Automatic annotation (TrEMBL), chain A:
<dbReference type="InterPro" id="IPR052049">
    <property type="entry name" value="Electron_transfer_protein"/>
</dbReference>
<dbReference type="InterPro" id="IPR005614">
    <property type="entry name" value="NrfD-like"/>
</dbReference>
<feature type="transmembrane region" description="Helical">
    <location>
        <begin position="89"/>
        <end position="107"/>
    </location>
</feature>
<feature type="transmembrane region" description="Helical">
    <location>
        <begin position="233"/>
        <end position="254"/>
    </location>
</feature>
<dbReference type="Pfam" id="PF03916">
    <property type="entry name" value="NrfD"/>
</dbReference>
<keyword id="KW-1003">Cell membrane</keyword>
<protein>
    <submittedName>
        <fullName>Molybdopterin-containing oxidoreductase family membrane subunit</fullName>
    </submittedName>
</protein>
<feature type="transmembrane region" description="Helical">
    <location>
        <begin position="191"/>
        <end position="213"/>
    </location>
</feature>
<dbReference type="GO" id="GO:0005886">
    <property type="term" value="C:plasma membrane"/>
</dbReference>
From TrEMBL, chain B:
<keyword id="KW-0411">Iron-sulfur</keyword>
<dbReference type="InterPro" id="IPR054822">
    <property type="entry name" value="DsrO-like"/>
</dbReference>
<protein>
    <submittedName>
        <fullName>Molybdopterin-containing oxidoreductase family iron-sulfur binding subunit</fullName>
    </submittedName>
</protein>
<keyword id="KW-0408">Iron</keyword>
<dbReference type="GO" id="GO:0051539">
    <property type="term" value="F:4 iron, 4 sulfur cluster binding"/>
</dbReference>
<keyword id="KW-0004">4Fe-4S</keyword>
<dbReference type="InterPro" id="IPR017896">
    <property type="entry name" value="4Fe4S_Fe-S-bd"/>
</dbReference>
<dbReference type="InterPro" id="IPR017900">
    <property type="entry name" value="4Fe4S_Fe_S_CS"/>
</dbReference>
<feature type="transmembrane region" description="Helical">
    <location>
        <begin position="21"/>
        <end position="42"/>
    </location>
</feature>
């Protein structure tokens, strides 16, 4: 492999980015230490809303980690040559984002020091228990896949490794969706549709993250993505965003149809304050309709930055969607006595309130910081910049003059 | 959480005390009943099973349960809640009541159409098929052979998945450092906890503190005993009156039954 020579300006940029990512990560770690030392009393979490902002960011990263591997899968599993040069970056981001997401979830545990107990105990009736198997195997398979991609001696096995990683990521995201799908107690969850919905969400969020990272790397290297390839990728993102919208509509329509769920749906979609605002404003308008407009308007999508902006909006929309789903799902009270008004000193029957505290926000953002830092190091140490063979792509019919 | 409790008028009648003496006497006679099955007990106490000797595993022949008569449970009365807090050392002061632990709480419910009201204590329902145990990744949430659902505070990692899974909001997460704990009832910051049916008392042949106080104060709204023993008072009552399991649609086979709702 050729040893990269960096200019002094590039060297400086690398260390500035490293320091920036390191600072955000360090602030998050300090916040986690403070929460561990003082207890969750310093957070906005309560005994009604006990999964807060760190879960929103952590689960977003874990779901997107699975989806970001999609780019590699399209190349290796479905044989699309234009995607193959992107496979190493796709695999690297998958590993990094899963690690960052898990770090946030683990640091938010009440007893993070005991996490090894979860790793060494097997409870097959627990979806968390499944995940203790699903995540390490994902790391292993994607690591193996990267090895087969980047080591010529192992190239012969990349399809098998890619296929294994592809199947496993579907299983893994099924597991993430099922964390909620298997919860029978709450109106917001207990639905089999959540597993495929999380998979399609992972496609959209993962591709959005990939496009942003790729764009940044190209910009730093003064490269421009070929317009034809850019069009293919933006169409793919648009398709995924539309598919997520379809699942969201089906999920809410079925709930609205069930009499027992109408009060919950009214809360989430109409009367719940911040939750309808984030659903309609954050997810539907900012995270879905606006990106679709940017991606499919014949003149706008070709403008510089339009696809990246759409990708960024998709990520913001995804975070809003998860916030509504996770926090809103807990804020709505458990219905123990149908047809009754319920009151208690434990806020039964009352809408839960949740305002994230500064330590929680820092811990949540450190997920992005950890992912960013590892990516900056990864792409410098190893050769992850997609190297498009333009002649080969033209021959394959992907590019046109 | 005691700061949130509502003081109520206490019934100072001595009926409860005599009943308690009776309970003690029958508990002591439990062994005799075991070796003399022909003896017909006129009234079976709430603790008719002998203490569990140290080192002996809990028996699945027993299914501890509770019957709550909501017609005798007065709105505003929190004697059971206070007894639980005292017994289990739930004495910490919390700035935000939403972050405090409540192992047992009083719920007031009103039928929307008729306006009819009920008051009842809500606590861990000690399900035969507990969702909290199903979802626990470490095995900290567990069900004893005798049906008591517990959290092992030594291996709970504080993930709160059990709180997500519980349909009864019966579990609390300890949000802050704790002091002055009851040595028999270990609790810990960062762990999840819930009603233990006062397992440390039950193992000594006593009844849970909430039930004892409710009875002692003359309310007689709570009954504790072995649901598997057809001769226990709770079994006979459950066989005679209509009882309700909260969210029976989930088919969790609850250890706590309600009468009058």
């Amino acid at each position: 492999m050729k040893i990269e020579q960096y200019t002094p300006a590039e060297e400086r940029l690398f260390y500035i980015l490293l320091a920036l990512g390191g600072l955000v990560s360090a602030l998050g770690l300090a916040a986690a230490y403070y929460m561990e030392h003082s207890g969750h009393v310093v957070t906005g979490m309560t005994n009604q809303v006990f999964w807060g902002l760190p879960h929103v960011f952590g689960i977003f990263l874990i779901v997107a980690a699975s989806g970001v591997l999609n780019v590699a899968s399209i190349g290796s599993v479905f044989g699309k040559k234009a995607y193959k040069p992107r496979a190493p970056l796709s695999g690297l981001l998958a590993i990094i984002m899963l690690a960052a997401g898990l770090a946030i979830i683990m640091l938010d545990l009440g007893r993070a020091d005991r996490v090894l107990i979860a790793a060494t105990h097997v409870n097959l009736t627990s979806v968390f228990g499944w995940n203790m198997i699903l995540y390490p195997v994902f790391f292993g398979l994607v690591g193996l896949y990267l090895w087969t991609l980047m080591d010529r001696r192992m190239n012969a096995y990349y399809k098998a490794a890619g296929f294994s990683a592809f199947i496993w990521r579907l299983v893994m995201t099924t597991g993430t969706g099922s964390i909620f799908g298997f919860v029978v107690a709450r109106q917001a969850y207990q639905s089999a549709i959540l597993a495929p919905m999380f998979i399609i969400m992972s496609f959209a969020w993962g591709l959005a993250v990939f496009l942003l990272v790729q764009r940044s790397m190209y910009a730093w290297n003064n490269m421009e993505l070929n317009p034809a390839l850019r069009q293919r990728l933006k169409n793919l993102l648009g398709t995924f965003i539309t598919a997520v919208l379809y699942f969201v509509i089906v999920y809410h329509l079925t709930n609205i149809y069930y009499a027992k769920e109408t009060a919950f749906e009214h809360f989430i979609l109409v009367s719940g304050g911040v939750y309808p605002l984030l659903f309609w404003g954050g997810y539907v308008v900012v995270g879905t309709l606006l990106p679709l407009f940017l991606l499919y308007h014949p003149a706008i999508w070709q403008k510089s930055g339009a696809v990246s902006f759409a990708a960024a909006l998709t990520i913001i929309g995804g975070l809003c969607q998860l916030y509504v789903f996770i926090i809103g799902g807990q804020a709505f009270p458990l219905e123990m006595f149908p047809g009754m008004e319920v009151t208690s000193t434990f806020f039964d029957g009352a809408i839960g309130t949740y305002v994230p505290s500064v330590p929680e926000i820092l811990l949540s953002l450190s997920g992005i910081g950890i992912g960013f830092t590892l990516t900056v190091i990864g792409v410098r140490v190893l050769r992850f910049l997609p190297q498009d063979d333009v002649a080969m792509l033209k021959d394959a019919g992907y590019l046109h003059d | 959480m005691s700061e949130h409790h509502i003081n109520t008028e206490k019934d100072s009648g001595n009926g409860g005390a005599s009943r308690r003496n009776f309970i003690g006497a029958v508990a002591a006679a439990g062994g005799l009943a075991a070796i003399a099955p022909g003896i017909h007990l006129v009234q079976v106490s709430q603790a008719n099973t002998p203490p569990r000797p140290a080192g002996e595993a809990a028996s699945k022949a027993v299914r501890w349960g509770m019957l709550i008569d909501t017609t005798k449970c007065a709105s505003g009365c929190t004697d059971c809640v206070k007894a639980c807090a005292t017994e289990n050392g739930i004495n910490e002061t919390v700035k935000d009541a939403r972050q405090g632990s409540q192992w047992i709480r009083k719920i007031d419910i009103k039928e929307v159409k008729t306006g009819r009201t009920h008051s009842l204590p809500m606590l861990c329902q000690h399900c035969a098929n507990p969702p909290c145990v199903d979802v626990c990744p470490t095995g900290a949430s567990m069900k004893r052979a005798d049906g008591i659902v517990l959290v092992d505070r030594h291996i709970c990692i504080g993930c709160r998945y059990c709180m997500m899974a519980c349909p009864y909001k019966a579990r609390s997460f300890v949000h802050q450092p704790l002091t002055e704990q009851n040595p028999e009832v270990p609790r810990g910051q960062g762990c999840v906890e819930s009603c233990t049916f006062c397992v440390h008392r039950v193992d000594k042949g006593q009844i849970p503190a909430c039930v004892e106080t409710c009875t002692k104060e003359g309310h007689n709204a709570m009954l504790f005993g072995d649901l598997n023993d057809p001769n226990s008072e709770i079994s006979r009552r459950v066989a005679q009156v209509t009882t309700t399991q909260v969210r029976a649609d989930l088919k969790l086979d609850l250890g706590v039954r309600y009468q009058g709702i």
